[in-house]
Amino acid sequence: MNYLAHIFLSGSNRKVQLGNFVGDAVKGSSYKKYPPDMAKGIQLHRAIDDYTDHHPAVCEVVHRLKPEFGRYSGVLLDIYFDYLLASRFESFSGVSLRKYTRTFYLSLLLNYRYLPLRFKRFIWHFILTDRLRKYATLNGVRESLNIMVEYHHIDISVDKAIRYLEEHDEELFAVFRPFFIELQKFCTEYRHNYESQL
């Protein structure tokens, strides 16, 4: 799962969303240094990644991508899944992607002081380029992949990756939709169990 999915799966608590958003940048037990709801979001981020990485449907798609994209198949599938969510966002959320992302961007600015340094360095560019909404279009996905290739040295052909998504959109969505509904239930139960332990 990529940024948009992690935020959406956090529920309505802004601090939990924020923690889930920055989860990759927080290692080990250092999540305990953050406000309690952010710490919950960081832990939820890890639970989502673990659930996703071991889900049979996800493993099957990664296996299918391997001949074309090798060891970056899992990274690419995260991007594909955010596209599938973003391009059909209102059907999952009941609100427009524009309204949802604007509210989250405001939350980011209001809680800027809590962001890890790595996020503080790029967050203004992230907001001003409306990165979350870019996932809803193939051109936006292309931009994101170009950034990953340039700055993270991921060795994939962006043209090939976009072509695959274009040609297999419906096929991928047929896997994504039931998987994501299961994942939403998992996250709801996870958040409920966390609250009941407080």
From TrEMBL:
InterPro entries: ACP_PD. GO terms for biological process: fatty acid biosynthetic process. Keywords: Hydrolase, Lipid biosynthesis, Lipid metabolism. The keyword Lipid biosynthesis applies. One of its GO terms (molecular function) is [acyl-carrier-protein] phosphodiesterase activity. It holds the Pfam family ACP_PD. PANTHER family: ACYL CARRIER PROTEIN PHOSPHODIESTERASE. This is DUF479 domain-containing protein.
